[in-house]
Amino acid sequence: xxxxxxxxxxxxxxLGMGRRLLRQMHIDLxxxxxxxxxxxxxxxxxxxxxxxNPDKVIxxxxxLLLAFGVMLAIAQFDPYTLRxxxxxxxxxxxxxxxxxxxxxxxxxxAQRWLDLGLFRFQPSEIMxxxxxxxxxxxxxxxxxxxxxxxxxxxxGILLFPTLLVAKQPDLGTALLIASSGLFVLLxxxxxxxxxxxxxxxxxxxxxxxxxxxxxxxxxxxxxxxLNPENDPLGAGYHIIQSTIAIGSGGAYGKGWLxxxxxxxxxxxxxxxxxxxxxxxxxxxxxxxxxxxTLYLLVIGRGLYIAAQAQDTYSRxxxxxxxxxxxxxxxxNIGMVSGLLPxxxxxxxxxxxxxxxxxxxxxxxxMLMSIQTHRKLIAT
Amino acid sequence: xxxxAGLALKDHLRxxxxxxxRLVVAMVMIGVLVLGLVARLFWLQxxxxxxxxxxxxxxxxxxxxxPPTRGLIYDRNGVLLAQNLPSFTLExxxxxxxxLAKTLDELAKLVALSDEDVLRFHRNRRKKRRFEGVPxxxxxxxxxxxxxxxxxxRLPGVQxxxxxxxxxxxxxxxxxxxxxVGRINERELQRLDTSDYLGTSHIGKVGIERAYEELLHGxxxxxxxxxxAQGRTLKVLERTLPEPGRNLYLNLDVRLQRVAEQAFGERNxxxxxxxxxxxxxxxxxxxxxxxxxxxxxxxDTLTFKQLRESxxxxxFNRALRGQYPPGSTIKPFIGLAGLELDEIRADEPLNCPGWxxxxxxxxxxxxxxxxxxxxxxxxxxxxxxxxxxxxxxxxRLGIDRIxxxxxxxxxxxxxxxxxRGELSGLLPSSSWKRRTYRTVWYPGETLIAGIGQxxxxxxxxxxxxxxxxxxxxxxxxxxxxxxxxxxxDNAERQAVAPLPQAPVPIVRRSDxxxxxxxxxxxxxxxxxxxxxxxxxxxYTLAGKTGTAQVFGIKQDEEYKEExxxxxxxxxxxxxxxxxxxxxxxxxxxxxxxxxxGGSAAAPIARKLIDAWMQRQGRSE
Lengths: 379, 620
Prior knowledge:
The structure holds 2 protein chains of 2 kinds. By secondary structure, chain A is mainly alpha-helical.
């Protein structure tokens, strides 16, 4: 068997009973455990953030069940299959993105949803997975570091859907899609010189983007971010109220269900994008550190899986998905604590809401697939 | 084969090496960024905890908008046209109400609540935060306020808010000029800077209120207040005062406006009076008018339907949007074109037999005077309003030169007055007809254009401005409603500068004097069509009557006024300015279905100009 052939994956049966069962179900135990703890914690916070409305918690619980199901289902496919389907998923996702621009529903002033009869659906969610898959597919076709042609191709692959999503306009998702693709490029060994060059070009292009590409509300968000006091009644309200919520939590927090900011209705969108403020108000600095630690556990495990992965595609995909998960986390907490402008990115696994949790868990399913379908190398 | 495998293995290791390297970089980055987050949280929660705890726990700080006070509107002499009066609104705070249905039942016993009130309340409730008051009833009577106050102890979450409501003390007078404010609707919300309108419920809808909305509204202020757990304000922590709206002084003179509106009586029509020296609009009348106070708090559907569907169309601003054929009022301008373009000489007479015929056209174009005017020169043609003279002149000029000359006065274009909605009228030309109807221009159409009939349409505002321009010897001023803007904080008045436009070029000043003198004789000559308003004049007055056909009369058929339905009767027009030597007022009057300009429209203008000259005499 040549190493250039598609690798065959087999189960490892030299393990104990319990571990063998996990292996057979293609579950990565450390990842599963940290995810379960995070999600459990999330439901607790949601109960408080949703004014102790059990309906919301149950709805979220059901959604989580579905998401875990999706994760397990995806984990059953081996990375070779994932790789095979990458271009198809990308193609379908792109077609839907274009469809959404043409016939999509408008919600809250942005065109993001596609009505599929039974349910409404955000095609940009698919792209969060399809873009890193497709870029990894492109780059893994040849050796690393990638050739210039491959790089250009990969850049196009990630740029096109990003622009489509940004046009909807959904800046948060566009950011996530772009970074998921960029991470693949970076992990694949994109030269630092090129990275620096692109960075400088982008800085130079920033004024153009500001004047021509950004919507009014996006511009306002940036301005308000720079000086929230400017608009204490409008866009600045979110940031002011969430920093008050976080700051007033102190070291130990006000206790579960005791957050005044959230329960007196000062904090907007507190069960969705701003749920971290509720958490920090009620559980304080220590709670926030615990939460960060849990997230870092997930991320650490993801990076470990990436490092252990045995072919280029798996490596790039696992690395990119994990790093994108970190971007979620960083952008959300940064925004809620007033470090970053308000970009609509939920706190992963904890914010109330549908599609993004399913996508996230699907990504973890891919990680598990990569980890549990390890081929044997005869030594 | 072995070599190839070795190569692949080497590549594989190299790839893996690159990847591991990058992974390390990524981990370092993650570490740095997480440290950043930790530092930020440490800063907020540990270092500044006291600060935020004060803001949050003990004091429940709330940011409340303070709406600015809307600017007042005055006429040129300081008569108040639009003011703000306190009124009381009943509001409910949903957060403090356990049983909304029960509370609404209780309230219905205390104040009059219509189904519409309740519906609107439920609609608005969804848009507000739970601790914000949602209005249920506006303009409570004093008795209702008293009943609510007595019962308030058993109605938690029910509050009465005093707010300022727009009021127009003169009611119907000058409603079309001032306009009105109304509740902000969805469409307006989208184009507004919403944070500036927090706390503001009304917005200018038409007229001055709409055109000067930005100045009148001012800028929102806000206060950070400390509230107790019930959301009640305990203490104001910080206050940024709103910037009140500017007061406006209009060029409008309410006395003239009243004289004019009364002179119209029950008749429909429009009048615009302009000060030719600066374009100031002294009176802007559109009859019938309406009471703008009805619109401030929304009128019930029935009243609105009546206003909207009334055949008299009271909501239609005839002064700006009514497009009428100018009729004979256009003759002085056509005459001026003839002189300045060297097609005629003032002393060159023409014989008027009472009709005019074109070559190769059997049709007889009749004069209004069946027997004809006989030997007619330009002055006589204007004074007696001879049609045949102007048929002939129009043929000499041709439609395109007529178009070009009148365009210099601004016909066919909006005047640029500082309120919205004016229409541009229509100044036809052969190329216009080709574009619009895809047919050629017929000579007969030129002919009737010479007496202001046919395609040509003008608004009363346009007629007033071209009259002012004529009175001014070509100097054009954009009509202006607002005379001065006042900052309410320091009462400083800033005059709005007149806005001149490109003047009508003068070839010979004597041509203009000839026309103006003829217009003077329209009033002062015993043969003048407006001679009946000459009696008792204490100043010099120049004018021109006009009659605009509402429907065509067949060849050789006579127009019998009494047989024609009122709505199909001719419109009566009159333009005038005074004093002739140094004009300070120019007027255009249209009386819909009024019949003859001399008898129906001219007396209205006379009354208005009398009132103006009296005031001028006193002030100068």
